């Protein structure tokens, strides 16, 4: 089985997360109650009896779910990998599994294998295909863990042997190369149980990455808390799972949407600190991605289509020595990128940056590949000083990305404390 390039994760920087399942039909509401948390947790949070929740499968026929269109959108949005919920905590699988018939092929009118459809669509578009799998929580299997409930009398070993390990074997054997297995909420899993899952992944697909949420420190990279951004660069590989509103699964009452500018700011911060941004959309029960999500992702994707050079494959940058709330740095050898928000705020459209010791060779705006003027000098205190002169049409733009070619390969910020 072929695999993805070795450094795909470090180069990709931006991925698309898709939370989809039976919970998408409810949209965060059940019998007049709105779940206070993520909509994908509704069965647990509103104590929906399993016998009632299971009945949703008979209604699950998402005619709007089009894997090819989703893959096309992922490309348009500038995301380089896609992670899909093969099985969430509710235990319902979106693929045809032989060890449990609680899945989309056997229990729904659609009889569709959504993992297979997306795997094929991503292959055709050159997108790295990844899968989310809830390895510890399973609210359908009697011995799967259930958050915020008493799990003392669970025979967790039986769940692992009957469902978790067989389903992981199916996913890693039957759907082509998987770039990453995204595990979640290990709860009370023992180190040897996490290790067993980790080794199974590596046995079946040696190049498949394992997310940090497998538990007990066994992941191939660190995964932050949801929507939590580290304040400083991290030396190891890391990723933040984020949302455009507050819920991951579709929640019709959740209209607190981020703007495209907010998404771009988050992406720049994450890349500047060495991480990846796995940004989620939650299709509704028909399989349609909400219009608000599409609009935001389209705007961010247009920005990346013109400025992707500053982000894909970029390296972490050490903290700059002064606060610059509307200027963010990313880096590649001999190139320092400045993402400048609302450049019209800077006097005479001049971006002034003291204490950058790199010697600039040229400067340009990435959009349109336009050369711009710059100056490098010393201050009266003998500190290095950059001046970058923006063109008049930058006055009313939301964001401008500048590439400065430097004589030195690395970034050299002069420290204030010596």
Quick structural summary:
It contains 10 helices and 18 strands. It is α/β, with parallel strands linked by helices.
Q: Care to describe what's here?
A:
- By secondary structure, the chain is an alpha/beta fold.
- The chain folds into 2 domains: 8-310, Alpha-Beta Barrel (TIM Barrel), CATH 3.20.20.80; 327-406, Immunoglobulin-like (Sandwich).
- It contains 10 helices and 18 strands.
- It has helices at 8-12, 23-26, 42-45, 50-53, 67-76, 114-125, 156-174, 191-204, 260-272, 291-307; strands at residues 14-18, 29-30, 33-34, 81-87, 128-133, 180-182, 209-210, 222-223, 238-243, 275-281, 327-332, 335-341, 350-354, 360-365, 370-371, 373-378, 384-389, 399-406.
- The strands form 4 sheets. Strands 7-6-5-4-1-10-9-8 form an 8-stranded parallel β-sheet. Strands 11-12-18-14-15 form a 5-stranded antiparallel β-sheet, covered by helices on one side. Strands 13-17-16 form a 3-stranded antiparallel β-sheet, with no helix packed on it.
- Strand 11 (327-332) and strand 12 (335-341) form a beta hairpin.
- The radius of gyration is 23 Å and the shape is elongated.
- The mean pLDDT is 97.
């Amino acid at each position: 089985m072929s695999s993805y390039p070795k450094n795909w994760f470090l180069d990709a920087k931006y991925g698309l997360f898709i939370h989809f399942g039976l919970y998408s039909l409810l949209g965060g509401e059940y019998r007049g109650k709105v779940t206070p948390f993520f909509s994908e947790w509704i069965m647990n949070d509103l104590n929906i009896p399993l016998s009632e929740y299971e009945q949703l499968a008979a209604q699950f026929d998402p005619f709007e779910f089009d894997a090819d269109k989703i893959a096309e959108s992922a490309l348009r949005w500038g995301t380089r990998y896609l992670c899909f919920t093969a099985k969430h905590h509710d235990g319902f699988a979106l693929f045809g599994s032989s060890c449990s018939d609680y899945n989309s092929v056997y229990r729904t009118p659609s009889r569709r294998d959504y993992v297979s459809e997306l795997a094929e669509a991503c292959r055709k578009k050159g997108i790295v295909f990844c899968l989310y799998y809830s390895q510890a929580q399973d609210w359908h299997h009697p011995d799967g863990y259930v958050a915020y409930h008493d799990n003392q009398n669970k025979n967790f070993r039986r769940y692992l042997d009957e469902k978790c390990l067989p389903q992981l074997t199916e996913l890693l054997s039957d759907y082509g190369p998987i770039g990453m297995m995204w595990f979640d909420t290990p709860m009370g899993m023992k180190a040897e149980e996490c290790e067993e899952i980790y080794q199974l992944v590596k046995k079946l697909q040696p190049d498949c990455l394992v997310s940090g949420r497998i538990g007990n420190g066994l992941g191939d990279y660190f995964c932050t808390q949801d929507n939590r951004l580290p304040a400083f660069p991290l030396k190891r590989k890391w990723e933040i799972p984020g949302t455009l509103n507050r819920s991951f699964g579709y929640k019709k009452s959740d209209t607190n949407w981020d703007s495209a500018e907010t998404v771009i700011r988050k992406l720049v911060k994450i890349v500047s600190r060495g991480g990846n941004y796995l940004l989620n959309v939650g299709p509704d029960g028909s399989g349609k991605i909400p219009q608000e999500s599409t609009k935001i992702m389209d705007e961010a994707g247009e920005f990346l289509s013109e400025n992707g050079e500053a982000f894909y494959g970029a390296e972490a940058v050490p903290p700059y020595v002064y606060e610059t709330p509307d200027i963010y740095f990313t880096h590649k050898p001999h190139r320092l990128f400045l993402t400048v928000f609302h450049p019209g705020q800077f006097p005479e459209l001049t971006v002034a940056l003291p204490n950058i010791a790199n010697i600039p060779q040229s400067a340009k705006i990435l959009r349109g590949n336009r050369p711009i003027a710059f100056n490098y000098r010393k201050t009266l205190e003998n500190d290095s000083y950059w001046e970058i002169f923006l063109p008049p049409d930058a006055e009313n733009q939301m964001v401008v990305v500048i590439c400065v070619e430097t004589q030195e390969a690395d970034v050299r910020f002069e420290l204030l404390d010596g």
